[in-house]
Write a structure and sequence with these properties.
alpha/beta; Aminopeptidase; Alpha-Beta Plaits; 2 domains; nine-stranded mixed beta sheet; four-stranded antiparallel beta sheet; 13 helices; binds zinc ion; Bact_exopeptidase_dim_dom; Peptidase_M20; Zn-dependent hydrolase; Amidase_Cbmase
Length: about 425
């Protein structure tokens, strides 16, 4: 179904939220797990990018792929400055859900249609963006597209990123038809943006517990990833006496439990969700167990306490088993306080709707909006997730709540760009 309505020159309404959602749903979905595998610069990623370009073109928006592989769909002159930008990402974690990322992109196109169909006339350029490689599922670093753009990841650093099969980021980009030598900071682009608003499915249950459909973000918790390398000695699983072993799996296993304990004590979160083992044989004692710790907390001191506690415990366990331990911090993002003026403006705009109560909440999840927040005024809207489950095929938001999110975003874009 195509919506009708007259709007700015060149623009025409696209398909509905529900139709866009249905179009995108099968892309990159694994038939067994039913989860999504939309990893950066793969075939599934390319299909998502094609979908984005088609949505832009169907609306008469100007599609642009920037030097870092982020996609933009412009209404109005990008060069005019003070643009109001909305969007999110389309890639996924391994076996991720349908909503994390795509809800923001689909809602952005739908919100644009809604506000223009209402008859609102933008006085500023508007854009929808799809940031590339947000989840970091393939190359181990989250928000590569926005980090590069913001100059928070250099081209040299990005060129060293390698996936689990030994493919480097430049090789993957090249295979997907993107020039890896073009990547790097893009301050001119950011200077043209007056506000960035990212809508995202909530990755927790705060809205469900408060009984609200939509919320505004206050801050993103500081968070990081640490790699723990436990090195022991490979040997025969049948003939090596227990007392003769230097088994790194044991110290790793104890460290996983320590992480849980430290996080619980501090009211934080800590997770070992990825592991690699060498030689990875059923009948071999491992020589190396490499585990990645992801930890987040409401403030820096708490996070430092948790990670220091986990590392201290890991060293004690490694010593006890004659195992060597290296801990490397692979990425870190400090606490992000969203722009207070923009946040207050969002609350004011959404406050006009007497039906909608919009609580302000913090989150433990990182987002492109957080990466950009010290370069551009940014804000986030969250849509209720009844179970709080995310990064899993069970991730869900009710259609009514998604549509309430679209309307809230349309209100925000109208308030920011049509005054
Ligand atoms: Zn996301």
């Amino acid at each position: 179904m195509t919506q009708h309505g007259s709007g700015p020159a060149g623009w025409r309404a696209g398909t509905s939220f529900q139709e866009m959602w249905r179009d995108l749903l099968p892309v990159g979905r694994h038939p067994d797990s039913r989860g999504y595998r939309r990893f950066a610069w793969t075939g599934a990623d390319a299909e998502c990018r094609d979908w984005f370009r088609e949505q832009a073109e169907a609306r008469g928006l100007v599609h642009e792929l920037d030097r870092n592989g982020n996609q933009w769909a412009w209404l109005g002159d990008p060069e005019a400055g003070d643009a109001v930008v909305t969007g999110s990402h389309l890639d996924s974690v391994p076996d991720g859900g349908a909503f994390d990322g795509p809800l923001g992109v689909v809602s952005s196109f739908a919100a644009l249609d809604e506000l223009l169909t209402r008859g609102a006339r933008p006085t500023k350029p508007l854009a929808v963006v799809n940031f590339g490689d947000e989840e970091g599922a393939r190359f181990g670093l989250a928000c590569v597209g926005s980090r590069l753009t913001a100059g928070r990841l250099t081209a040299e650093q990005a060129h060293r990123l390698t996936d689990g099969d030994g493919v480097t980021l430049p090789q993957a980009m090249e295979a997907a038809g993107h020039d890896p030598d073009a990547i790097g900071a893009d301050p001119e682009r950011l200077a043209r943006i007056g506000a960035f608003v990212e809508l995202h499915v909530e990755q927790g249950r705060a809205l469900d517990l408060s009984g609200d459909r939509v919320g505004v973000a206050s801050a993103i918790w500081p968070h990081g990833r640490w790699r723990f390398d436990f090195r022991g000695e490979a040997n025969h699983a049948g003939t090596t006496r227990l007392t003769d072993r230097r088994d790194p799996m044991l110290s790793y296993a104890e460290t996983v439990l320590a992480a849980r304990r430290e996080a619980q004590l501090a009211g934080a979160v800590a997770t070992f969700g990825k592991i690699s083992v060498e030689p990875n044989g059923v009948n071999a004692i491992p020589s190396l167990v490499r585990g990645w710790l992801d930890s987040r907390a409401a403030d820096q001191d708490t996070l430092d306490t948790v990670v220091a506690g986990v590392e201290k415990a890991a060293r004690a366990y490694a010593d006890a088993h004659g195992v060597d331990l290296d801990v490397v911090r692979e990425s870190f993002t400090p606490v992000v306080e969203f722009d207070h003026a923009l946040r207050d403006e969002l609350a004011r705009i959404l406050g006009r709707d007497a039906e909608l109560r919009v609580p302000v909440l913090g989150t433990g999840a990182g987002h492109d909006a957080g990466i950009l927040s010290d370069r551009v005024p940014t804000a986030m809207l969250f849509v209720r997730n009844p179970t709080g489950v995310s990064h899993s095929p069970a991730e869900h938001a009710a259609e009514d709540d998604c549509l309430a999110g679209v309307s809230a975003l349309a209100d925000v874009l109208e308030g920011l760009a049509c005054t």
